[in-house]
TrEMBL record, chains A, B:
NCBIfam families: PRK00051.1
Organism lineage: Bacteria, Pseudomonadati, Pseudomonadota, Alphaproteobacteria, Sphingomonadales
InterPro entries: PRib_AMP_CycHydrolase_dom, PRib_AMP_CycHydrolase_sf
Gene3D superfamilies: Phosphoribosyl-AMP cyclohydrolase
Keyword Hydrolase assigned: yes
Family according to the record: In the C-terminal section; belongs to the PRA-PH family.
UniProt enzyme class: hydrolase
Gene Ontology process terms (BP): L-histidine biosynthetic process
PANTHER family given in the database record: HISTIDINE BIOSYNTHESIS BIFUNCTIONAL PROTEIN (PTHR42945), HISTIDINE BIOSYNTHESIS BIFUNCTIONAL PROTEIN HIS7 (PTHR42945:SF1)
UniProt protein name: Histidine biosynthesis bifunctional protein HisIE
Gene Ontology molecular-function annotations: phosphoribosyl-AMP cyclohydrolase activity; phosphoribosyl-ATP diphosphatase activity
Length: 114, 114
């Protein structure tokens, strides 16, 4: 637990990234960052991720325009996860919902969240 | 995007789990859940995870007493990540900090968060 930033990428070279709306504090999405996505995010101020399904770098909002402007990056105790505090441009979820976490679990069903 | 709960575990049999304090909405920690950890969490109302380093089921707070009482589970659009809205008993981080995300990134250094 040094004070120098030394991100601990997992066996696939990834960190877990949680996107939080810096306005209301709500969790908007969870994704993964490799070293390049982290570097691009820091360089540009726009959240970039690594797509595990496509195997490529991914600028969030590249096609939809719904980018995430990063205000602050929080790092956890063991440096294998980050929280990106962001100002989202438009909805974050590809379904059009503000947050990807728009449903809650009730028995074995997903029902609309608050 | 069905309405039935059908968690999409990754190649290692894991979901990403983000723990949020249901009181103030702050992100407290990020961990992983396998099918068993998810089932135990739902049965007991206490957050259980899968420890990737030890390769075992893990009841958060088993030794420290700092358990997480789960109020609600939110599920994301593609069902590979969950947010656990919890009432934490005591600090969540093993360092004694309330949240594991107690530092923010500034240049290449980690400095205390707000």
């Amino acid at each position: 637990m040094t004070d120098q930033f030394a991100p601990k990428f997992d066996g696939h070279g990834l960190l877990t990234a949680v996107v939080v709306d810096s306005g209301d504090g709500a969790v908007r999405m969870v994704a993964f960052m490799d070293r390049e996505a982290l570097a691009k995010t820091r360089e540009t101020g726009l959240a970039h991720f690594y797509s595990r399904s496509r195997g490529t770098l991914w600028l969030k909002g590249e096609t939809s325009g719904n980018t995430l402007q990063v205000d602050e990056i929080l790092v956890d105790c063991d440096q294998d996860a980050v929280v990106l505090r962001c100002r989202p441009q438009g909805p974050t979820c590809h379904t059009g919902a503000e947050s990807c976490f728009f449903r809650r679990l009730e028995d074995d069903w997903l029902v609309p969240g608050d």
